[in-house]
Amino acid sequence: MDIPIQSGYEMKSLAVLQGYKKFFLFFTGHKNFWVKGLEILTWMFLPAVVFSGCASYHPRYLTSAVVEEKLTVPSTKDICIMAGSIDHPVLKPIDFDDRDGLSPNEAAVLAVLLDPSLTVERDRRLLAGAQLLQAGLLPNPQFSYNINFPTGGPTEGLVNNFATNLNWDIKSLISRSARVDAASAKQAEVNLAVAWKEMQVAQGARMAVYQLLALNKQAQVRKEMEQLLSENVHRVRQAVMNSLLTKLDLAAAEAAYNQAQVALLQITQESGQQLLTLKQLLGLPPDYEIKLQDNIELMDNIDISSLEQLTASLDTRRLDLLALRQGYKSQEATVREAILTQFPMINLGVNQAQDFGGFYNAGPGITIGVPIFNRNQGMIAFERSTRKQLFDQYVNSVFAARLTAAKLLKIMLSLNNRITASKEAVQVLEKLLLTYRQALEQGYSDVVIYYNTWSSLAQKRIDLILLKQQLADSRFAFELAVGIYSIEE
């Protein structure tokens, strides 16, 4: 014969029930009551006692060691695993390999994986899940016990008077479905909102890569110009010594060289600050060494005709607009819940009692609130007003998104034309500079004219770099506006 093994929770529950039995028998003095009463108590308190140990308190102290552990950058192997298994409605897994430098897409995924601000956003998912769990819970039944002792008058032959009552508020059962629907839609809203934030961070990281690339290219042009002007100062100084140029020409050459030095220092500083900004977006410490891939090029043209059709259907892709839809759905369920809860409170229960003469009586009981003053009118009006506000907010967001996308299309079209014109101007100046260089070598020109031409060419190159950077910024902004991540080039 197998002997059943009682768990710790079962033994605990039996001990508690035995204690209840002894306690009430002491006051009632009537054992027959427990034939039925103890059975009710068993079904009521046994689950509570058994499951009371499932949730326990575990402290989580905020210490420096815990914080530093959280801020530690994962190993390259772990990053590769996470990048290959990223789960996002828009972003796709990639093969992460930064040994040849960091690409814009690798920077985007790395930012989504490591940016500490996204960890805070993702915690909202836990809160939404807890709210969904809470929405599905029903109130516990209520059990009451009263006992009265005969203390005066002719008490001979009298017994203790007691009464038990078990009731349950069924009003929450009426609105449970609406509460669960509202919490479920709210959870979907939070998930989409977090995904939208991740997409924004990813696009911000890609944009930061191109901005750093543009600054590095500007610094390269400035450095070439600074070196050329340094050589120019030396040549002008020799020419002054040979009485071919005046000291005024030397002063002008030195001033131009000093300006080039200041411009180079400034662009170098901006490049360093942009590198720190990129590290911040990627969730990397300031001393972490990163470099960009050598084959990254600034875009100089975008096919606008292939993008125009994306504007009309952006409300079906943009994650923030989809989140607003879920928020409206949640509010719709909340309005339904408010209407359902206008019904009065209804408590159903059973009663059992013994009077002083030892007679038992039992029967059902019902308590109904009388809805004279409060029929939940204020909450219904509030939730309906909130629903209207969310509807108008969604309509306004769709309108603003379409307008933003249309503006960005115009900006990219303009930048395409300006970049084409700027490239032609650079080519013209390069040919002119070559002509002046040949004339200078043959003695038919002077160094000042050559310097002025080179200065104009360098500025045009910088202007072209800035235009390409603006085009990249506009591209990523347009991707966000229409709810896509990558544009086929």
From TrEMBL:
GO molecular function: efflux transmembrane transporter activity
Recorded coiled-coil stretches: none
Annotated InterPro entries: MdtP/NodT-like, OMP_efflux
Family, per entry: Belongs to the outer membrane factor (OMF) (TC 1.B.17) family.
Protein name listed in UniProt: Putative outermembrane protein
Source organism per UniProt: Kuenenia stuttgartiensis
High-level lineage: Bacteria, Pseudomonadati, Planctomycetota, Candidatus Brocadiia, Candidatus Brocadiales
